[in-house]
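Here is one chain, start to finish.
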Amino acid sequence: MKTGNPKSEILTRCAGNPKSEIRNPKEIRNLNPQNRKREDRSFWRFVIGYLSFFRISDFGFRIFVLGLCLLTTACQQDMARQPYYRPLEETSFFPDGRSSRPLVDGTVPRGQLLEQSPILTYRRDSAHGDAARAVALIGNPTMNAFAALLPFTLGPKATDYVDVCPIPIDKKAMQRGQERFNIYCAVCHDALGTGNGKIVERGYLRPPNYHTDNSRGFARRGIKVHLRDLPIGYYFEVITRGFGGMPDYASQIPPEDRWKIIAYIRALQLSQWAPLKDLPELAKDKVRGVAAVEGDRP
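Its structure:
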């Protein structure tokens, strides 16, 4: 067994090493392993005693809780407790008792148009619907009121939609409508509006043909009508609100561009389904020639 004084051995080693950084007895004492063990035990005794103080002493527990409360109050934000009113809540601050204040006279909308704006109006006013109901009752006095009003509960009729474009349509507007149509509509409806777009070729729901198909929306209301015979207000409603597998484009297409797209759709329908009497003479002769050739085929 090795005997001797550890402190003497450390002093001897330091004396033999001129580059040693130990110069005072305190540092020599800290190098002693037994002293370090004593200091570690003293530290853990202090920690255990401190915790026991808070666990056993009621006074210590109160001090601990008080310290936590002081810390939590420092994290509170003034914005979390600011005074506010809920919508339409009563208040005594204003003479009329309303916390929600009316708009100042002369206020104009900014960013989004009001629903009453002509450019966003695609249905006739309610007075037109009341007049239609009155005509239904007067035209057939034997019909009871419930039977006369039943068709109107299924949804608006074709006559309830506007048939006049609220913006002027010229060549520039038609070109803009064609451009927007090719961007947003042709992927499903194709460039001619026959419903054979690229999305349909990849398994998406096929949209109706603008020229030959009936309206699916009116079919659900029990009305059979061709898309080419519907007023333009119905097209604006479908673009704005969507229908079936078609999502709404209210956020992508501004209202003015929607009307221009509809004007271009009307031009497509006219190009594919124009009456013969409305065509120029040169075009009439061409159509008659094609019809004659088609008729001669078996």
